[in-house]
């Protein structure tokens, strides 16, 4: 219990540690620095307008001046499954009202906020202009940012910080220091915030910032107490210029080129924030292990020493695993893997081995953990690890015949990918700086792109590979064309690639073609659009079936995509559970069923397009609704009196056709 209470404290310490960049020489800059935010040439800045419609034009102009791609949206609901493709998201005046009265669907708000957290953790920069008096900002306390309602009218420079913020835009800064702060701003010191500009207030609060920035994961969250639409429009070009320069916090960072190759973007955005665990750890010392466990279980030390912190985390997950609490052990391990370069899959296997030796015999609960880790490893492209976890799960699930059958089915599905990884493992184990032949580059590229679906990494190898057609395709793809006609041509070149491929590789190539068609077709017109749509129809769409059973009273809706399915009840009593492929989904526990781990309802490669519906039982309406590619919507309505059992099969893929 004590450990669970201390986890938020631990997380704050973790983020503060990860934010600090490499130390700089004291005579140049005694101030701590946050790492720069890198971006790829193809990424865009997204402006969430909020209430500041008048801010769109100056925001677009500022992006043009800084040679940044620009997109805007009236709210955070941008009609996409996530925020990938953007390097920065800027929220305009009162943008956080979306998370209050701007959207009534609480599950949608939670999903979008979760996507924002993932965007930042993956290396994005979330920059928020003020929402009046900090209203509707409760969710953002998770970043250590706490806006308030105390206003101010003056700002003051922070030596060593503000000149970095204003660099290149000095002529835009009001000399009288006047700007309205529509509220004050508190921050959690455990997150290591860096204030870039502070307020002046006659009744205190003067040490609080006008603009602060804090690291979260591999990215950054910044908050400015100015509303540009209300006498603060001059802050827009300053903010965009700062973002375009990688959001530097220190003078020695000015002038650094923050535009990097797409294939290496993740490495650049995580290279500083993920230190390697110290090599000289002596984890056998009982006194240190006892002290570290006490810190975690009782109060969690705020000692910033990486060695002590890593020992504490390692001791905690070992204690939890040895006690059989694998939920807690995995929670701690996931946190550690975000802070240090540790191999969580190898550690999980070791924890399972130790537990199975200590307590041999079937354990259905532990089997489900092993099976979930198998699915996670497979999604991460760790196919050999996925197979090893599946073997451990089989041993643990010996008496659970239904689970055992599911594990064995997945092992058969794993086999082509497992064989592919075994074939390339000797090349993968070579140092990154090894010189490889074109043939070796092609072997690695085919594995990463066509089997593991890590396209950026795979394309970076294929562009130096042996196959001339694949070389050219990889280079065109990595260039990330913005013109829809060029995107469509790239899609068609992937579609018509005629080199030797396995069935698995051919499927991956067609999915890549489909990806570029999906990007280009909405922006094409006339004959170009007709031709692209015809080419898209020629691509195969492997079919899959998802079977549903439920007792329906009233009216409801199923919304399904590759990540999750949601149930929306319009009237009547919501079902207590829905059987999805014979497995219960208890709506009383969650209105969403995630397509992962033991709850997976469709394969990782499933294409949610061309849906078909076959109603087997039910006295009234079960209807497919029109929706965008990648999402399926099913409306269900029973007659006004009573309830009935409904059973139907959803088919996704080329063979899908609705039946009455």
Automatic annotation (TrEMBL):
Entry keywords, A to Z: Signal
InterPro entries tied to this protein: Class_I_gatase-like
SUPFAM superfamilies: Class I glutamine amidotransferase-like
Keyword Signal among UniProt keywords: yes
Signal peptide: 1-26
Protein name: Uncharacterized protein
Organism: Planctomicrobium piriforme
């Amino acid at each position: 219990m004590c450990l669970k209470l201390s986890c938020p404290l631990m997380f704050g310490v973790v983020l503060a540690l990860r934010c600090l960049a490499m130390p700089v020489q004291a005579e140049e800059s005694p101030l701590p620095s946050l790492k720069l935010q890198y971006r790829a040439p193809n990424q865009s800045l997204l402006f969430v307008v909020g209430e500041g419609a008048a801010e769109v034009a100056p925001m677009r102009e500022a992006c043009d001046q800084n040679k940044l791609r620009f997109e805007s949206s009236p709210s955070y609901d941008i009609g996409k499954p996530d925020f990938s493709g953007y390097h920065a998201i800027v929220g305009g005046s009162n943008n956080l009202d979306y998370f209050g009265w701007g959207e009534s669907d609480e599950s949608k708000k939670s999903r979008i906020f979760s996507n924002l957290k993932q965007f930042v953790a993956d290396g994005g920069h979330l920059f928020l202009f003020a929402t009046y008096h900090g209203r509707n900002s409760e969710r953002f306390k998770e970043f250590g940012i706490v806006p308030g309602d105390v206003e101010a009218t003056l700002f003051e420079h922070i030596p060593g910080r503000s000149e970095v913020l204003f660099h290149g835009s000095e002529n835009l800064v009001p000399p009288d220091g006047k700007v309205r702060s529509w509220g004050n701003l508190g921050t959690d010191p455990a997150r290591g915030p860096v204030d870039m500009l502070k307020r002046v207030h006659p009744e205190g609060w003067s040490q609080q910032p006008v603009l602060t920035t804090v690291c979260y994961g591999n990215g950054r969250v910044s908050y400015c107490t100015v509303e540009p639409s209300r006498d603060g429009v001059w802050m827009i070009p300053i903010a965009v210029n700062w973002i375009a320069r990688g959001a530097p916090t220190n003078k020695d960072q000015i002038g650094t080129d923050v535009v990097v190759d797409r294939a290496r973007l993740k490495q650049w955005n995580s290279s500083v924030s993920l230190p390697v665990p110290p090599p000289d750890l002596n984890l056998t010392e009982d006194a240190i292990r006892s002290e570290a466990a006490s810190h975690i279980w009782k109060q969690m030390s705020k000692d910033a020493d990486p060695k002590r912190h890593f020992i504490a985390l390692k001791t905690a997950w070992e204690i939890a695993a040895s006690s059989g609490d694998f939920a807690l052990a995995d929670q701690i391990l996931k946190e550690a893997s975000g802070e240090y370069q540790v191999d969580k899959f190898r550690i999980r296997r070791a924890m399972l081995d130790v537990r199975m030796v200590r307590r041999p015999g079937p354990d259905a609960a532990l089997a489900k953990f092993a099976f979930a880790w198998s699915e996670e490893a497979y999604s991460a492209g760790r196919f050999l690890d996925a197979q090893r976890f599946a073997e451990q799960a089989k041993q643990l699930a010996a008496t659970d015949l239904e689970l055992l059958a599911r594990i064995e089915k997945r092992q058969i599905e794993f086999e082509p990918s497992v064989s592919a990884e075994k074939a390339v493992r000797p090349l993968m184990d070579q140092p990154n700086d090894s010189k490889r032949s074109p043939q070796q580059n092609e072997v690695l590229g085919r594995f990463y792109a066509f089997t593991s679906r890590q396209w950026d990494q795979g394309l970076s190898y294929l562009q130096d590979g042996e196959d001339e057609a694949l070389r050219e395709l990889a280079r065109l793809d990595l260039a990330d064309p913005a013109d829809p006609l060029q995107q469509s041509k790239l899609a068609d070149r992937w579609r018509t690639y005629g080199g030797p491929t396995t069935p698995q590789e051919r499927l991956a190539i067609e999915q890549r073609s489909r990806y570029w068609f999906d990007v280009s077709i909405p922006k094409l017109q006339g004959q170009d659009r007709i031709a692209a749509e015809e080419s898209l129809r020629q691509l195969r769409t492997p079919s899959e079936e998802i079977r549903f059973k439920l007792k329906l009273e009233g009216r409801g809706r199923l919304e399904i995509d590759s990540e999750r399915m949601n149930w929306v009840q319009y009237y009547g009593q919501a079902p207590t559970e829905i059987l999805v492929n014979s497995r219960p989904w208890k709506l009383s526990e969650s209105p969403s069923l995630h397509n992962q781990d033991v709850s997976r309802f469709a394969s990782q490669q499933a294409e949610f397009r061309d849906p078909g519906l076959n109603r087997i039982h039910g006295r009234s309406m079960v209807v497919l609704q029109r929706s965008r590619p990648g999402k399926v919507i099913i409306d269900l309505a029973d007659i006004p009196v009573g309830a009935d059992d409904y059973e139907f099969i959803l088919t996704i893929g080329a063979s899908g056709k609705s039946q009455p």
